[in-house]
Design a protein that fits this description.
Number of helices: 14
Distance between the termini: 60 Å
Shape: globular
CATH class of the largest domain: Alpha Beta
Strand content: 15-25%
Helix content: 25-40%
CATH topology of the largest domain: Creatine Kinase, Chain A, domain 2
Length: 499
């Protein structure tokens, strides 16, 4: 069931809004930065209503000029720089995102998007603006709606912000010991915390489809309800906010870091994607008459239960994976780079184990294959209406707005160009094929992925634009610079005495 794009509490008019806020004196507003961090503030109700009436309010552009830890980027970037004095952007309030924060005195809450003050258009790296641009293009081309779901795996530590700092983020205590995927016992050790995540998510209008333990000490996995791309991206990052907030209440720090433990599986952020028409029909599904025997003309037998349009979409994904991995990891065609899918230094360490940890590290696809980068989910394993692709490269640390923009941007490019699949399914490949170079490997570091993404001929530039690539690429170069300057505890332990 695809949820409505608006929250169930969203006001239909300004008069509805005034009634909804009749007993409030303040309102919380927030937007997302390039790393997907929620940044915002409280406003008086009167100032908020004034901002709604005047189509926005000023918000300092430094939001796009600093990193996760508020360090200013190493190089001047287009959107936010000292040369223009970090001028204000326009923050526009999206009334369709209204909900209340039950754990924060039931405070009213709205999301904002960021516009250029001169052109009044979304800035090139506003996460919500980037995805909106892609979804509008998809609608213009085919009259289709981008539909998606997100699954998160995340570790839990029995730590607080203070204990993390005191321990210098070492020797951390997991919430529960051992490897207990789908356990009905481990959830009873922290019953209220575990159940409250589900219950509060429903109250916060971030509906969930599944919630269970995953393999690893203190690991949970949560699947968010399938809905429109922008709504699910909002929900994904609001879910992180919710879990981290509840964690504080219970003395728990949940971590969406891609690879917190070297010898254990990492944390994925798998994304499910499909396209629906105006009648809510899944255009990736084959016609009913093709269910008995499959579609004629499918390039491979494993694809006979997806439509030709879906096959073009898949070819587009694979064609660009390696150029976009920064975004997905953190996507993946040989010429795109996984920067948008894997955006952090740590995210690439999740891919090192490859199939051993069900973390695909090559440009591959396969019917219902969890070893492939793109899992084709179609009949006979699911009903036709549930036909979709699961992109398994993305880590839990990825910004879902950029990851979804990349996935749908690549897919629609494949449809427009009617791209043909250039490789067979993973079931036709062997480990020897990898060794012989017959399989394209994904970038193994943020540095390599960023280099691929910012190349003049990159597919990333084609689907996301030069302004986005230049700015986002600059933020990843900053991340690389900070990493290259760091001296890690591993280095000290290895070299201090014996080098």
């Amino acid at each position: 069931m695809v949820a409505d794009a608006a929250t169930k509490y969203a006001p239909k008019s300004v008069e509805d809004l005034r009634q909804l806020l009749a007993n409030d004196i303040k309102v919380k507003v927030a937007g997302f930065d390039v790393d997907g961090v929620l940044r915002g503030k409280y406003m008086s109700k009167e100032k908020f209503l004034g901002a709604v009436s005047s189509d926005g309010f000023g918000f300092c552009s430094i939001l796009f000029g600093w990193d996760l830890h508020d360090a200013v980027y190493s190089k001047e970037l287009l959107i936010s720089n000292s040369a223009n004095g970090y001028h204000d952007l326009i923050a526009t309030i999206d009334l369709s995102t209204f909900r209340r924060i039950s754990w924060e005195d039931n405070a009213p809450f709205f999301l904002v998007s960021f516009l250029d003050p001169e052109t009044k258009k979304p800035i090139s790296v506003c996460p919500r603006g980037v995805l909106k641009k892609i979804t509008e293009k998809v609608e213009q081309i085919g009259g289709w709606q981008c539909i998606a779901g997100v699954e998160f795996e995340y570790f839990q530590f029995k730590e607080t912000p203070h204990s993390l700092a005191e321990k210098k983020f070492s020797a951390l205590q997991p919430l529960t010991p051992g490897m207990h995927g789908y356990s009905l016992l481990r959830t009873q050790l922290n019953t209220r915390y575990f159940l409250e995540i589900f219950d509060e998510a429903e109250q916060f209008d971030v509906p969930l489809e599944g919630h269970h333990t995953e393999t690893g000490p203190g690991v949970f996995e949560t699947a968010l309800a399938y809905t429109t791309a922008i709504r699910v991206a909002d929900n994904a990052l609001l879910f992180k906010y919710l879990v981290k907030s509840l964690g504080m209440k219970y003395g728990v720090t949940p971590s969406f870091m891609a690879k917190p433990w070297g010898n254990l599986p990492g944390c994925s952020g798998h994304i499910h994607a499909s396209l629906r028409d105006s009648n809510n029909n899944n255009i990736f599904a084959v016609n009913p008459e093709e269910l008995n025997g499959g579609r004629e003309g499918a390039t491979y037998d494993e694809l006979k239960y997806i439509s030709q349009t879906a096959e073009y979409f898949l070819a587009g994904l694979l064609d660009g994976l390696t150029d976009v991995s920064d975004v997905l990891l953190g996507c993946f065609p040989p010429d795109f780079g996984p920067c948008q899918l894997v955006p952090t230094i740590n995210g690439y360490k999740r891919l090192v184990g490859g199939e051993a940890f069900w973390a695909p590290n090559a440009v591959t696809y396969g019917y219902d294959s969890r070893a492939a980068s793109v899992r084709v989910i179609s009949p006979p394993s699911v009903p036709p209406a549930a036909t979709r692709f699961e992109i398994r490269v993305t880590g839990a640390d990825a910004n879902p707005f950029f990851a979804l923009s990349t996935i749908f941007g690549l897919g629609i490019r494949g449809i427009e160009k009617k791209l043909k699949l250039s490789i067979p399914p993973i079931s036709h490949l062997s480990l020897e094929d990898k060794k012989l170079g017959k399989v394209t490997m994904l970038p193994q570091s943020l540095e390599t992925a960023t280099e691929r993404m910012i190349r003049p001929e990159s597919i990333a530039r084609e689907i996301l634009g030069d302004e986005f690539v230049n700015h986002y690429g600059g933020t990843r170069e900053h991340e690389i610079k900070v990493w290259n300057e760091a001296v890690t505890s591993w280095e000290v332990e290895r070299y201090l005495e014996l080098a």
